[in-house]
Amino acid sequence: MDLKEIQNLIKFVARSGASEVSLETEDFKITIKTHTGITYPVETAPVVAHTAPIQQVVEVPASAPAVAAEPPKSAAPATDESKYLTIKSPMIGTFYRRPAPDKPAFVEVGTEIKKGQVVCIIEAMKLFNEIESEIDGRIVKVLVDDQKPVEYDQPLFLVEPL
Length: 162
Prior knowledge:
about 35% strand; 2 helices; 11 strands; CATH 2.40.50.100
């Protein structure tokens, strides 16, 4: 089972309302448990690719249905936003704006970012993945609230290119 299939399984379980699902093959076993408590990351861990069979327990918040980005609250014309670029989520998981609860946010509205700069963390399957900007620019809007679930390819930030 590859990462995309695991992500789809997590989405399915989160939307189904099931509290626990286990899947076992001769190569691996995966258990997905849903709960309402959200834990906050204390420190980040690198993404690790496993080539050997592993046993993985995944906890998904019961409130994990897709979160749509809020529509813009200003009455600005749509053409204004067309000049902005979007940083999107490369995976499903939980969005965090700061590296730890007592640390400042990676970026705020107005922050100038460079290509390769960390803009947030997404927790997926108990791994904290630093999300780096692929563009240079200035953060115009943060589209997701801290500690909220995000979907694959969901817009996270609007960026004005420099």
